# Entry
Amino acid sequence: MRARDLAVGYETVSVDSEALDAARLMAEHRLPGLLVLDEHGEPKAILPASQMVKVLVPAYVIEDPTLAAVVDEQHADKLCRALAGRRVGDCLSSKAEPPPIADPDDTALEVAALMARVRSPLVAVASKDKAGTHLLGVITASHLLHELLGAAGPSASA
# Structure
């Protein structure tokens, strides 16, 4: 099976999208992360849900986790205000790497190796030409596992 066969439509956001909308998208669809596109619609980064959670948590709580126990629920409910007025690009880690991109002709094993090498929950599948990068879809780790396990057939213990 080739990457083009495994790729599915997936929620994307741009670097200029509202951060709060991106967080809601992740929450509503229970996504491990979002593919972030640049101003030209090309894959720029992956915004993991864990990074979005980190943006919500005040820096003083990250530095001293014992403070989390003394923050009351009323204050905790206001954490999402940290996203107000922010763009997705503001929420990306300064160490954010470009997303892994598989060629449409890559095999499932090549995609798995790429995913494992960069420790990413998803891989973009895109074709590249002189006009730029054209996103065909995304392969998530869970979808890839499902396909690989299905190809392996029933387990020996079943």
In short: Residues 141-152 form the longest helix (12 residues).
